[in-house]
Every structure is written in structure tokens, then in C-alpha cells.
Amino acid sequence: MSKLIQMPSKTWLKYKRWDVIKRYQSAASTVNLGNRTLTIETGKLAKFADGAAVIKQGETSVLVTAVTKTLSQPSSFLPLTVDYRLKAAAAGRIPMNYFRRERGPSESEILTSRVIDRSIRPLFPDESSREIQVCCNVLAVDGENDPAILSINAASAAIAVSSVQYQWNGPVGAVRVGYVDDKFVINPLRHELEQSKINLVVTSSKQGIVMLEGGANAVDYDLFKEAIKVGYEESFNIIESIEDLRKSASENKYIPKRLPPRFQDTEIQDAVYRLCNSKLTAVFTDYNHDKFSRDSAVKLIVSGVMNELKDLYLSMTEDDLNQYIQRCIKQIFRESIFTTGKRCDGRSLTQLRNISCSVDVLKPLHGSSLFQRGQTQVLCTMAYDSLDMSLKFGPVAQLISGAKEKNFMLHYEFPAYATNEIGRPGTATARREIGYTRR
Q1: Is the distance from CB of 269 to CB of 328 less than 8 angstroms?
Q2: pLDDT given for residue 398 in this prediction
Q3: Distance of alpha carbon 112 from alpha carbon 82, whole angstroms
Q4: What CA–CA distance (Å, rounded) separates 231 from 13?
Q5: For the domain that residue 157 is a member of, what is the CATH number?
Q6: How confident is the model at residue 2 (pLDDT cuts 50, 70, 90)?
Q7: Span of 96-100, 214-218, 424-428 with lowest mean pLDDT
Q8: CB–CB of 63/44 below 8 Å?
Q9: 287 and 410 in a common domain
């Protein structure tokens, strides 16, 4: 570190972030899952990243890096981006396109990115506003061990050894639970998963279960609950392994202390609550409102409260004051529900919205339907075609999934006009639309 401080280049000092310059201590941790071993390493690859981890199980290995911006920016949501990539080279193949180069992320890669995102995002505190990017790069794949599950654990380890660890309530551990030959199997191999009655991904932290995804093939309810319990218990072994890794990697390594929590001034919170409480409660308990009229009423109240707060707290920016207001809206909204026992549209806590269903609404098509619940509509159309039009998988996808083609495809579209917004029709499919596409 002393040599870096003596460097004369002011330009270099201007752009280099000192909270990232640290001596990585190489460390490794091993955990037994079932009858196989999972190894997590850090400090060997991607040393300039805030945090990096390589995870291996069998012959499958994944490198995950976590990079954060030093300065936080005002944001109404956590600016976290997760990008998972499985390149053809990881399977010893060349991409099957004209240019023989990797193109954009595939449907499967985007879905996996969303699973990783859902596993780590809930553990960041509300005041987190530092931009974070998590990149998952599959280095090698053997076709039996699932790189997606490994990526969740590697992402957890990368964040745990990074400078953002003190802003995160992790680590998390993730396992896939299968049920083969009347036995639970942790992280089943591909051929085992094909015979499994349960396919369940369980991500847990020390506080409890964070994320569940999967399904089952006509199994008993108690058996499925037992699968969740088994996955929850097994994930603790991974959590302990990551914590051991963090302790070993933190030796002789500079990591900045946790930043003081933002938006925790009780005086401002109380002032915002006094200004908003009665007005917002009246809106949330007026069951004649629909979505748009309620949103308009809330925006009008927020605008008036913002003007009053600007006069009271001259040193606060509008973005910071808005954070207090949004937190207050959430608090009052929940209080009104628990106090009255009704939702903002007048329904009880156990009452569902009415749903209307119509079929064969477009006669010339093979199939069509229109579903509406509340103010949300879904128009679905179906088309039959020959088996030659089935979706053909490339060699890498075949290696991971074991399937060569798929003759059922569900394409999801979310046009801008669905939420009364302006967008560019005909552009590339958004990640959100792909995220709702069935595997």
C-alpha cells in the first residue's frame, strides 16, 4: 500500500478508488453436500474487483465478481445488476452463429440472472444506494453439476469478501433439492434431476429462507415441506463455509467500515409523519378510489408536503427528503391495513379480486382468451405448427438441460401502453419480458 501512495500520477489517483485497493489474502473453504464436495476460493482471480470468488463442484466452476461504486447516488431502488453468462467455451465448443462469437444473453442466462438477483437483493438495507454489479462467468461446465446454483453461492461469497459486505445482511447459501428413489438429494446431478419428483431451489440466510423456486410432480404436501426444511438446513453449511472464507480473506486486507445508515434522522421522520399521516390515511381508506385516482391523490399530497419540508430543512436535498416521504407512505399504508383490516380497495385480507375469463375471443386463431382481474388484463393467443418449428437447442444448452428441442413455447409481452407509458415499439425484447418466459 505504501508504494501505491507514493505514485506521482495525479490522474491515476483521481480515478482510482482507495476503498478497492487492498491486499487480497488467498483463501479457500470446503463444504460437504451429500456425498460430494463444494469448494469456494478467493484471492486468485479478478484481484482488482471489490470481491471475487471461484466456486467448484465436480468439474464445473464459476467465477463471480462484485464491484461497487464508491459514491452513492440518490435512488428510489437498489441499483443492483446481476449478469450471468454461460459461454460456449466453458463446454469446449464454438458458438453456433455466423460470426462464431458470443452474442447477447440467452433466455436461460437471463432467467438464471433473475434467480441470483432474487437471492441476494432482499438482504441489502433500504438505505443502500451504492451501485453494485455482480458478474457470473461460468469457466467450465461438466454437464452434470448445475452452474446456476453454484453461481448463487459464489455471488454470496464475492459480496461477503468485498467492501460492500458491511452493507449486506448476508451471506446466503443456496441448494437444489431433489427427491430420487424416496430419498432427498442435495444438488442432484443432471441425470438424477431427470428422475426426481421434486425440483426445488432454496436460498437461505441466518435470518431464514430468502427465496424459493421450483416445483414438484404430484407429491404430498408434507413431503414438499420436508424438502424445504432439508434445503434450509443444508444451506447453513454453505453459509458457515462462506463466513470462514470471509474471515480468512480479511486478514491483512483493508476493508472500509460500514457507512452510517442514511435517512435515519428521527426528527425528520417524525415531522414527515405528522404532515402526511391524516392526509394519506384518508386516501388509503377511501374505497371509491381506483389505482389512477389514488396515485394522483398521493402525488398531490407528496407535492404539498415536499414544499413544507423544504422550508423546514434548507440543508436537505429534494431527493433525500423524498426518501423520508416514501418510507412514511409505506408505513402509513401498512398501518391503515392492519388498523381497518381492509386493503386500500375495500377488500378484506382474505378476499381475492373478482376475475373474469373469456375464451375464443379471436375466432380465426387456433386459441385465444382474455383474463381480467381488477384493472389488469391478459390477452393470450395460441398457435399450432408442425414439429419442424420446435425450438432447437444448441450444444451447450443440450449439455446443461439434456433436451434437444422444445415444442411448447410461452412468449410474454409487456407493451408500454399497458401502464400508460410511451415506449418504442419493435425494439429488442426486454429482460423483464424474457424473465417471465417459461423455461
Answers
A1: yes
A2: 78
A3: 9
A4: 47
A5: 3.30.230.70
A6: very low
A7: 424-428
A8: no
A9: no
Q: The C-alpha cell of 368 is what?
A: 385465444
With contact defined as beta carbons under 8 Å apart, do 283 and 298 qualify?
yes
Task: Show the cell assigned to 196.
Answer: 426426481
Q: Are both 283 and 323 inside the same structural domain?
A: yes
Residue 68 in contact with residue 163, Cβ under 8 Å? yes
Asked whether 123 and 168 are in contact (CB, 8 A), the reply is yes
> How many separate domains does the chain show?
3
Residue 359, domain member (yes or no): yes
Residue that is last in its domain, among 278, 313, 340? 340
Range of the domain at 85: 18-249
Q: Which residue has cell 461460468? A: 138
Q: Give SS3 for 115.
A: helix
Percent of the chain with pLDDT over 70: 88
Same domain, 60 and 116: yes
Cell of 112: 438464471
If we measure between CA atoms, which residue out of 99, 94, 83 comes closest to residue 394? 94
pLDDT at residue number 431: 73
Rg for the chain, CA atoms, rounded? 25
Give the pLDDT confidence of 74-90 residue by residue, as tens digits.
666 788 999 999 998 99
Together in a domain, 178 and 151: yes
Residues 302/362, Cβ–Cβ less than 8 Å: no
Residue (of 44, 41, 48) closest to 22 by Cα position: 48
Task: Write down the pLDDT at residue 391.
Answer: 81
Q: pLDDT per residue over 216-235, tens digit each?
A: 888 899 999 999 999 999 99
